[in-house]
Amino acid sequence: MGLAIQAKGLTKKYPGKTALDGFSLEVAEGEILGLLGPNGAGKSTFISIISGAESASSGELFLFGENASNLSRKLVGVAPQDNAVYPLLTCMENLLYFGSLYGITGREARTRAEELLQQLGLSDKKNVPAASLSGGMRRRLNLACALMHRPKIIILDEPTTGLDPAVRNSMWKTVREVARDTGATVVLTTHYLEEAEALCSRIVLMNSGKVVADGTPSSLKRFAGREIAKIKSIPGKYEVAIDRLRKVKGVDAAIPTEHGLVVESDNISPLIQEITRVLEKHGEKIVELSISRPSLEDVFLKLTGAKLREGAADEPAK
Ligand SMILES: Nc1ncnc2c1ncn2[C@@H]1O[C@H](COP(=O)(O)OP(=O)(O)OP(=O)(O)O)[C@@H](O)[C@H]1O
Ligand SMILES: [Mg+2]
Predict the structure, then answer these.
(1) Measuring CA to CA, which residue among 1, 2, 46, 5 is closest to residue 23?
(2) Nearest CA to ligand 1 atom 5
(3) What are the tens digits of pLDDT across the range 62-118?
(4) Is the CB of 14 under 6 A from ligand 1?
(5) CA-CA distance, 301 to 281, in Å (whole number)?
(6) Ligand nearest 14 Cα, by number?
(7) Label partner for 177 (CA 20 to 30 A): which of 61, 259, 290, 306?
């Protein structure tokens, strides 16, 4: 598999602001990549350079191995952060308009539009002006417009910001379906960590126009710290059991506390059964067990000292 996107040292300077600062990224064909970073990190700027709406001050961009040009950009479909749909045009008219920009017209365009309306659950809104759609529907129409020309690279800039949880879930389902059915490469930006984890096999964290971390969700989280199991049991006499627990392969530490036993490991889930077995063998009856894992937010905090978004650290850990 080749590379769908290759950015080499992209820099974008606005008066008084460097939005991208030597930004380099490679995205393999078929990958679903999540681009995360706080407000102003440069995510949308990168997307504008891919789409051709902005040009880089320096650096290079390749799409499928070729210098990005008007021609190679036809392989890209962008659903921008601010919906690009025309409020006075109906759903169908919007789709036909966006199709026409890529030379898709006539019967082919109508068929494709019907197909997308169906897929995105907008069939009954076909002749309704975009202005009368709910926010979630408009977001889906925005996505449909980006898909009219069957792009090989699909770029979604915050596809679910401001959507309610149910609509967000149906959007996730759609993104997965589209990725699976078309085999397209997908790059999405988001502030929702659970979104990145649900959809993306790879996550790139960026800050101040640069990449600060790159990896699978679990590898990034492992970087932030160990996983912890907290166990409460009766009678809670761990003197003997604890030596056995410390010998369980994969356990890094077992610490009795006044609230119960704390066991640390790089990967705790596969060890739970053995930990439970050891405790029960030593006459402990487990009454409560919880696992906590570092979040992507922790990773970001550790790398940059900054939060991914306002209030994010206050969210309950999953
Ligand atoms: N046209 C412009 N003129 C001047 N500055 C700009 C312009 N576009 C973006 N910037 C600045 O570049 C920086 C990066 O902006 P960008 O929109 O790429 O961030 P982002 O990561 O998409 O943020 P958000 O999460 O808020 O969407 C910001 O400081 C922004 O103010
Ligand atoms: Mg943005």
Answers:
(1) 46
(2) 14
(3) 999 999 988 889 999 999 999 889 999 999 999 999 999 999 999 999 999 999 999
(4) yes
(5) 40
(6) 1
(7) 61
